[in-house]
Amino acid sequence: MTSNRxxxxxQLAAQQQRQPAAYNQFDDVSFVHHALAGIxxxxxxxxxxxxxxxxxxxxxxxxxxxxxxxxxxxNRDLAIAARQTGVPIATGSMSAYLKDESTxxxxxxxxxENPDGFVMANINATTSPVQARRVIDLLRADxxxxxxxxxQETVMPEGDRSxxxxxxxxxxxxxxxxxxxxxxxxxxxxxxxxVSALQKMGVRVMDVGGRGGTNFARVENHRRSQADYDFLDTxxxxxxxxxxxxxxxxxxxxxxxxVRHPLDVVKALALGAAAVGVSGRFLATxxxxxxxxxxxxxxxxxxxxxxxxTALGARDIETLxxxxxxxxxxxxxFCVDRxxx
Length: 341
Ligand code: FNR
Hints:
By secondary structure, this protein is of the alpha/beta class. Helix content is 45%, strand content 14%. It has helices at residues 2-18, 69-85, 95-99, 104-112, 129-139, 150-155, 166-176, 192-200, 216-222, 239-245, 262-270, 280-312, 317-320, 329-338, and strands spanning 29-31, 48-50, 53-55, 59-61, 89-93, 119-124, 143-148, 181-185, 205-207, 252-256, 275-278, 325-327.
């Protein structure tokens, strides 16, 4: 059942990429153009810091898959692309490995193909600290992602329906492992209340994982005999909305969810993200053209991110947060509702 589910997720998420929405809330963010702001390209640095660790690049391949033969092959391609471009990478949820050790290779391939890269393991919020240490050991992981996915579980035909233990469990994991823990959503967003609560549990890095890209309410609805939950298609906060909502809370924030191109990356960095994760868009590239296509895409993106920062006059990620941005449309309405300046 688990491996079929993993294969379903890949196919359904890729389908969403082939029919992209005309609009997402990154379109409500624009830079004020200052014609004399530009600097020398050689002055721009992409270096960033996550959990006190220096990342050479502010872009990463976010959690997706593993647990079946097909998804193991995808993980190999993703890992090769990470190795060749130097971007950090996360595995998909490793619950499949915790249930069935014979799936180990489909995850460990990400470390074997990328021995010196920054690799993040991924678990759900019901995993015990002992299990968390097992997945970390398998991958020699540099950080541990814990995903929060209550809406996905609700719509998933075979999903969990009990979420009451998550907070206590996250706290135990944070204190039970010796690498940084990153808590992330899977496309419905983290609110400022959630981020503050996680902060109290000792979590220092959070990936807002907002709405706008891969939509797991729609993915799981497709896996039902009837689309019983199609009213949840628009649930959650977009990635730029989350970034604005959590500003000033003093945590390291990562952005993912609905990132389509280098301009979205630069906008997310300007709104305060320390780095930006991409799943669906990179998955579609790997399915169409394998690791070589993803290496080309990431190389082009990094080049264009540098070019945009040059034109904006941002020598580093920190300076980018001081660029003038305008917020319009639904995103502006969200800011007014939430009292965000
Ligand atoms: C995901 N995502 C995900 N997240 C997670 O924490 N654990 C997981 O196992 C998975 N599985 C998964 C499978 C597939 C096929 C996709 C496309 C995505 C969610 C992912 O990390 C990310 O939060 C969302 O996909 C939103 O980002 P994009 O896809 O809009 O860039």
